[in-house]
Fold this protein.
Amino acid sequence: MTLHRLYRLGEELVANANSRDPFQIADEIGLQIQMVKDFTVLKGVYMILHEVPWAFINDNLDDRMKRMTRTSEARYNRFQNLHGEPCSMQLKTP
């Protein structure tokens, strides 16, 4: 999976939801969002529980980082729906 493909998945989500708001996109694709206060290192986690997609987001992040993390988890959801397998790409940060 390339960064370009991840970008295109994000743009498809925006186009389908007619919004860049991560909460609205999550509602549109059926992704449940839960804010978690006791994450220390993780920004967010995506998983499927009882056939329902969930994104658990670190509530200690600033608002900008929370938006970015919700968007990232929505992309993982979209990737898994398209390919039937989890996204295993690890992005390196500078």
User: Anything to note?
Assistant: The chain has a mean pLDDT of 78.
